[in-house]
Amino acid sequence: MGDDSEWMKLPTDQKCEHKVWKARLSGYTEALQQFQRITDDKSSEWGKYQGLIKKFVTDSNAVAQLKGLEAALVYVENAHVASRTVGEVVSGVVCKVFNQPKARAKELGTDICLMYTEIEKGEVVQEEILKGLDNKNPKIALACVEVLRRAVSEFGSKIITLKPIVKVLPKLFESREKAVRDEAKLLAVEIYKWIRDALRPALQNINSVLLKELEEEWAKLPASAPRPSRFLRSQQDLRAKYEQQQQVDGDAGGGDGADLEEEAPAVDAYELLEAVEILSKIPKDFYEKIEAKKWQERKEALEALEALTKNPKLVNGEYGDIVKALNKVIGKDTNVMLVTIAAKCVTGLATGLRKKFGIYAGHLVPTILDKFKEKKAQVVQALQEAIDAVFLSTTLQNISEDVLAVMDNKNPSVKQQASMFLSRGFRHCTPTTLPKSLLKSFCVALLKQVNDSAPEVRDAAFEALGTAMKVVGERAVNPFLADVDKLKVDKIKECSEKVELAGGKKTAGQVKEKPVPKAEPTAEASARPSAPPKKTLVKQSAPKKGKATAPKGGAAPAKAKKAENKESVESELSLEVCEEQAAMVLPASCMQMLDSANWKERLAAMEEFQKAVEQMDIGEIPCQALVRLLAKKPGWKETNFQVMQLKLQVVAAVAQRGSFSKTSALAVLDAVVEKTGDVKCGVKAKEALSAIAEACTLPWTAEQVVSKAFSQKNPKNQAEALNWLSNAIKEFGFAGVNVKAFINNVKTSLAATNPAVRTSAVSLLGVMYMYMGAPLRMFFEDEKASLLSQIDSEFEKVKGQTPPAPIRGSSKTSAEEEADDQEEEAEAGADVVDLLPRTNISDRITSEMVSKIGDKNWKQRKEGLDEVAAVLSEAKFIQPNIAELPLALRGRLADSNKILVQQTLSILQQMAIAMGPGLRQHVRGLGFPILTVLTDSKNTVRAAGLATLNAWVEQTGMKEWLEGEELSEELKKENPFLRQELLAWLASKLPSLRSAPSDLALCVPHLYSCLEDRNADVRKKAQDALPAFMMHLGFDKMNKATAKLKPASKDQVVGLLEKARTSMPAKPSAPAKTAPAAQNGVKAAPSPPASDKDAPDMEHLPAEAKKVKSAAAPKAKAVGKKPSVKAEEDRSGPIFIVMPNGKEQRIKEEKSLKVLKWNFITPREEFVEQLKIQMVPCVAKWLMEDLFHTDFQKHIKAIGTMIEHLEAETEATVCCLDLILKWFTLRFFETNTSVLMKALEYLKVLFQTLINQDYHLTEHEASSFIPYLILKMGEPKDVVRKDVRSLCRLLRQVYPASRIFPFLMDGTKSKNSKQRAECLEELGSLVGMCGMLVFQQTAAKSLREIAVHIGDRDTAVRNAALNTVVTAYNVCGEQVYKLIGQLSEKDMSMLEERLKRSVKKPAALPASKPPEDKPPASVNATLLRKPATCLSEIRSQNAAMQQQNSEVPPVFKLDPKFIVDFSPIPMPDLVKVDSDLSPLDLLHYNFRHHVDSVCSIDLVISDVASPDAKTSMQGLKRIAEILRHDGERQVMSGRVDELMAAMLQQLRLLASRRMVADGQSGQRDVDELYSAVISSLNLLILAGKLVEEASPDVLKDLVQVLLSLILDPQQSSVESPLIRSVHVLLSTLLKTADPTSTLSALLLLLQESCKSTTCSSEFREMVMKCHWRMIKFLPEKVEALYLDRVLLDIHNFMKVFPKEAIRQNSNELVYRTVKTLLHTLCRIVGPKIMDHLSLIENRNESEVEAQLKRAMKNTVPAQSQTSRNTENVGKAKTLQSESTFESSTKAPAGVSGNETVTPAQLQERLRVLREIHGLSNSAKPVNKVQCGPPVVSSKPALPSSMDMLHSKLSHLCETREQQDGQNVQQQSTAPPAGPLPDLSDFIARLERIKANLH
Asked: How far apart are CA 126 and CA 1674, in angstroms?
């Protein structure tokens, strides 16, 4: 009892976990009672038991477990968190409950499982139950089967997924336990209730006896569909509905059964089957036998395959080779038995793969259709079954071209079978999948067969037409039957009534009642949403009038039919009848005077005529009678223009007010058209034509007008008729216009001799272009170049314009009719490209070509691909039938050779343009394999794949890509490259679609998996794609799809969905009423209405292409006199394509030696091929053909094209610059002067453009180009050398002269004397312009090599060498003699003679250098200049030369000294200009122009330094604006020093202003200007690489001013915002500025601070902190460091301040700082640092060299390489210790470093090291001179370990020097204590002490 009293006091949840079963029982009981009391399902009490529920059901005590199960059931039923426990609880029920003997426990366990299913966790429950079926305990297996049976019975097949259950049924039937088998039978019967015969195929292989028993049980089941008795929580409304129906219907459940039967999901037996893999089971010799000569062997191979294809469901794989072999047997084998077997194999494959077989459909359908010529019934039946199975795997659209191609076959059997195939295929279609465009094509072809002489052909055609009528409705087919006899129409209708559609589909007339259910999954697209059929119904039910059938525009609307019927009723009236009808409505006087001889009477009669017409009622006007009356003598031969004008007005009035028929129009059109060219009556005639067009529709009227105008042979009438048509199209719109007829008439007009006719035709083309877009130009490719240029110019005028809103012809139509018109226009626009004549290239795709493409040798494969590209280029426009090419190209997309992959992609792009909309049928076979290319790791390959994909989508539309499972299967692949590229592509395409197929939902699960992908880019792209998916699928549907995710994943995905919901784009609206044809105006091949906006990115390209084309056409004609069709093929689009990071990737590949480095003496074939491969994705295909053509004329033409496109495509040219320069290097090796001159011409224009763009060549570009340009300096032709020299001058402005210098030096070593002379001349020019800095650290070596050429045999070389040396002498003076070394007497005499003649005062700096505050005082300082500044100097010089030659003087060029001397009063006059605009406005307006920007930026810089605060503030704001924009900040290049000087000047002015500022307002103004200056400086430092242009002197002044500002005592607090900003600015400056210039500036500043007597110690300390910060950055900046200059600066510092002088001034920390900088450089660079002392004179006497040698000499080798940092620290410690020891125990002078050390010496060293070690352990470290790495901050950072080491070593060194004398004395006087110890013992002990020091 004591134990009981203990647990009874515990709370309920703890009782549930107690080890005593009674305690747990009590706890479960209390929990059950507590659960029953809780009314809120979201109560926090539920959460307490979330982790305990599993223990409830798995309790080891049977009594407690039973109570726990009851509590768990109540918990699952009521708790909101119960769904989180489903996995563990159900697993516990299966393992610990179902094996219990108590029936109550099993019942409760079953109820728990079903309750979890009710709360929508059925999938997890089912998964755990299926696991339980594998349990060895039969009781558990039996219970699991019972649970499954109850779940199916209660919830139905819609909730319970039957596929996994059906899969395990055969295994359950084989169980050893009879109870399990019996329960499995009951489960099979229950499943059969729901899915019926779909269950049979899955159970065909079970025991026949058992199957018979099942059949008997199935036969006993009622025919009515079952209904669920239990519903999910989300279906409670449905449950209420059923209960209500039960109350209404009582026991008669017929109505319920019918409803339930319709709502029950149709289960496809195919989905329940397990797929079988057969590819690995195919005999190894299959392909050999199938090609064998003996038919028995071929039969054996086919029979083996047939046995495998009998499996009802096959695993998807690569069946291309098998299909190819079967296709060959069907098409070419003469043995009909083998043909039959092959057809059966095709049937098996198509049935087993279903939609996945669709990629092979286009390959098989033409062959099977052609094989129907066989007459044997067995063969025909097999072929019918095969083609029917293939049809179900694809769409009618994809095979339409193949079927239509055989409809005109001469063999009646083929035509009959084709019609029968169409009839069977139509049965699987719906009004949505049989659109107007397809229906028209098939109806036209079938109507031809209706009149065929063979009765079987006619009957088949009638049946096909009847089936089509059954599917789409009578209304849609009737327009095509207008000319068909009534008997034939009746027969078609009779056939239509007999047709039964597959799967019980609803026809177009039945769609209104119910949405189309998916009754037969194998049918084509039978489960489309109800919206499209509903839309079709609206269109069919709205009769319309006044619109003629557009050719190839799909089925004409009913209004056209109505007009035709009306026309046929109104017959042509005679003149007598017309007079009688007219007399009834016109005055008698009018009738009498119409034919009067007096023109005035006729005029009066016509006035009465017009007045009478205007007063008539609309329905009473006899239109035909009135217009025919006008022809009464003199009729239309009227000579008086006033009468004629009234007649034309009457025609217009009658047409506008009456029911004007086409019969009436034909009566007057001839006369009205004839008057269009009349000067006085032309306007009225055009008005009459417009009125007739409004009454009879523009398409019909326009066709009549144009045909009559050209039949009259009057050029004036022809021109005016075309002009009227241009305006009429704008007024009426382009709907229904007969494009083909118009184009033929326009071509006739363009060939007219009269220029007015040609001009009018071109204007009409411009109007048509607004509606049709780029495809229109394809019809005129063969016109003359001059005429084509006019057409392009006209297209350019209207490019980008939106078609005007129709203002006429729409007043009599409703909104629904307008929507129909818009759809009709879209379909008509889609057929524009179909009008192009296309070539059938199937006969040119030979088997040899296909075998080459699949050859093992890559060269053969490449040759095959080249042949395909040639065929496509020659054919230009092709038909969709391309024989076996799709399978061959598909294999190359997975080629291991990436070059061939890219070439295949290029061919596919070419194919897309050539094939047009017919490409749709190849989307499955060739389109989706393009997506596999996106898995490649190379950016270039993926970019090419995306370009190909977009080219295909542009032709096919997005609908074809979103239908089916292919896209979801690709997204399922766990390849990060594929996923991120595909998701990004979908995110860009989906928002532009008005609707998307329902199959898009298949991608959602894989999209969610991408949201949790390991790759960050994939996750980001998936998040970006979420709004696009949600736009089409809706939030609710996507949110529901998260139910299958794990709880953690679901929470994350739901959060992302909520976030995406806010950014979901709106669906594109329907085409606007004001511009009905705008969408299809710019697309090459508009897709169906659902996707007519699917490629917005591609739409811009043709427009740009037309602009380029129009400019290039005339010059291209001038180059080649007779351009071929191939040369003039589609040259639209940009010539260079911007590839993101393309150049960087190429540089990276070349550096890593993945490709050949561009370095050769003569170009080999592999270099040319590599360049070609690299240029393929970046250069237009047509330009590539010219660039790599064998004909030099093509090269000239290509260069001309590049010149023309350079200005428009500057950005793209820069992106491809490395490739362009490489291509031109190849041209340098050609001997053709014309090509060379053209190449140099382009290069000059190119470099001038680069200069204007302020572009600098990269090392990669320069090294690939400059060496080969220098080769052309030795060209024998003077004109070439002249151009090369000009090019070199331009080259200096885009590449630093110091880096060009080494290339020129290499050029001087050439054997070509002309090249040597030119290189030397260029070197002299560089030296004269940039000074000695071009030599960098090789001045002596280079000048010696130059001086050698003074003795050359060639006079030109000698003179050039002498001139170069003289130029150097003018720069650096007498020092040149030291640099050139010793010369022979002859050479020296020539040099001295030349120097005397050209003597010039040496200058420390060349004139071209920008002014500096403190120019270098010595030649060494001149040599110190940073090489990169040479480029800015050259540009500054050129700008100065331009300003000197200009008539306008420089505007406000900054002069700091001049600004300092300015008085405050006259300064405002400086910013006044002779314009109403302010200087800032002028700057903003002209900023993008190179010349004006030079003056403008100088103006702004002068404003910055202005003493006037407002002017300075304006200048700073403009500077900040410039620096914030990437495109504008480049104008600051070359002016960084000036800008910094101006800002420093302003800071100095502000310092003085602060002292005299009055009051808070004045102080606030000063602070505001301070902030502006600091902010601008910060922007400048962060603006790319601009700060790297800052010179050391300016940087020194900047650091000095900033440090002074930090230490300014007037600043109230160190934590003030201004001081914090200065700290940040200074820290950023040290990080981003050029490290060489920064270190030079800091060393110079440190030197000046030590010299100055007024400099405070705080300032000196801040300077040293800056040094420490730079030392910290050295490891990452050492590569960019110009070591020679830094070492020279350190040398100068140590020379000015020796160690002794520093100690005297108590500035020893300064010396340690510089010494630490030197030692750090030595540690990072290593022994190679000794090669960088070339700038130091007398380096042997330099302290720098001594320090470096000492550091390297005393370096102890590292004992391990595991950590470089540890190694360096150890080295430093040992170095300093040994250095200290050597300084304290100086050896005699005669002892060298290599002599053997005696034991006595080792003992003394050991004693000294002990003392040192003891001091460091006992004494407290001196912190007086701690030298940690300082930061420019108010809180100094902790010193690093290296810095502490240096401090400690310095302290030890001082200690040793103080004890030096004492140690020496002790050493000399102390006698030996005993025998000398062993030497090895000393060495070991010494090493241990050194190790301790580490």
From this structure: 64
